[in-house]
Model the fold of this input.
Amino acid sequence: MTLRLGVNIDHVATIRNARGGAHPDPVRAALQAQKAGADGITAHLREDRRHIGDQDIERLIEAIEVPLNFEMAATQEMLAIALRHRPHAACIVPEKREERTTEGGLDVAAHHGQLRPFIEQLTEAGCRVSLFIEPDPVQIAVAHALGAAVVELHTGKYVELCFAGRTQDAERELDRLRQAAADGHKRGLEIHAGHGLTFDTVKPVAAIPQIVELNIGHFLIGEAIFSGLDTAIRRMRALMDEARSEAAA
Ligand SMILES: CC(=O)[C@@H](O)[C@H](O)COP(=O)(O)O
Ligand SMILES: NCC(=O)COP(=O)(O)O
Done:
């Protein structure tokens, strides 16, 4: 199975919003990412609009040729926006206003009743519905029962453990990712993964054979300051491909 790279351009908007105005433009970044080989663009329209704004979503839909993965909380406001734009994919994520970033996966087991109508309406509108969850067997089973097409496994914990030098715990978390990917794939779910991935942490995740898409943003946008977006994306793509061919050998 080939592995797609979705580039998340949220944090281009974070830099723009630090001063207001229009520069740097996340849509320009998305077009550059597309040219550098991104297979898709991911953007998270947060309730507080701290990075991506409503107009960015409208402009992205107009401008990009690769699929848009629209990340959204399960709120009526976001549902109405998604139904208006009908992006290729709608990824439902948990959201807390006070958090610095998306801290964990959506608890689909606890909120299945609330989530079902969102999944149904988005699917009906032609979006591929993705649920951003922890690599946990119960979450996988409920995501499947809810009729989602895709699950995106939260890799944040694995990355944090790697950077804390907690090698054994990171390996255990990687095993949870492997198990969840295999289990979800067996159930017919399409498997994506992402959050916090970097050049140093991407390869073991990219090597998991059932994963078909990685969504990566914050690190690539940060790295672009030093090497340029094109170089950062091409390097990430190369590491992903390397991991895949090493795993297949
Ligand atoms: C859900 C998710 O993982 C992404 O949206 C990404 O982390 C960028 O958004 P935040 O940094 O605002 O969480
Ligand atoms: N869903 C994960 C994503 O889009 C990118 O997350 P990050 O690389 O910005 O942490």
